[in-house]
Design goal:
The chain is mainly alpha-helical. 46% of the residues lie in helices and 9% in strands. It has a domain of 39 residues. It has a two-stranded antiparallel ribbon. The longest helix has 32 residues.
Length: 70
């Protein structure tokens, strides 16, 4: 029987897959939780940057044209 391995999507460490069931993306619950927190932080930063760009555009009297991303 061959061992099936996968790299953790968070820490890149290899881990052995179980013989049945859906293959996990992460090697541990700690990596899964850390990946979730990092993604949430990334989303919050992106939202803050977008809000600041809108605030600056409003302060300068600039408006987005049709089809342009805000």
């Amino acid at each position: 029987m061959t061992m099936r391995m996968r790299a953790c999507q968070h820490c890149q460490e290899s881990f052995e897959l179980a013989s049945t069931g859906r293959p996990p993306k992460y090697c541990s619950s700690t990596c899964r939780k850390n990946a979730w927190h990092e993604e949430k932080t990334r989303q919050q930063v992106a939202a803050a940057v977008a809000a600041e760009r809108r605030r600056i555009a409003d302060a300068l009297g600039l408006t987005a044209e049709a089809g342009d991303p805000a």
